[in-house]
Design goal:
This protein starts with a helix and ends with a helix. It is 78% helix and 4% strand. It is mainly alpha-helical. The chain is rod-shaped, with a radius of gyration of 24 Å. The protein has four helices and two strands. Strands 1-2 form a two-stranded antiparallel sheet.
Amino acid sequence: MKHQLKEDIRDQYIHGILNKSGERLMPTLDELIKKHKVPSSTLYRISSKEEWKRQRKAFQRKLRQELDEAKNMELKEKLFKCEEASIDISYKIFSKA
């Protein structure tokens, strides 16, 4: 198997494939074998030797952590805006009194 083809398959297996709507699809080795028309025994041997499954799980953990952190930041910003609005409303109410 050519080096570039192997790297392309590895990248698609470990990092997934983004579809047109931006959704990440995580193909199986069997799907990639069919897509790229490569011998299954060769790809299974390479993926096992290079620990693709472990790398894929590590990537997914890191991606999930980054998504969680981004969501956390988004929620903090929304909370801050709500607090600002509450303070503004309170100020307007008490300044009329």
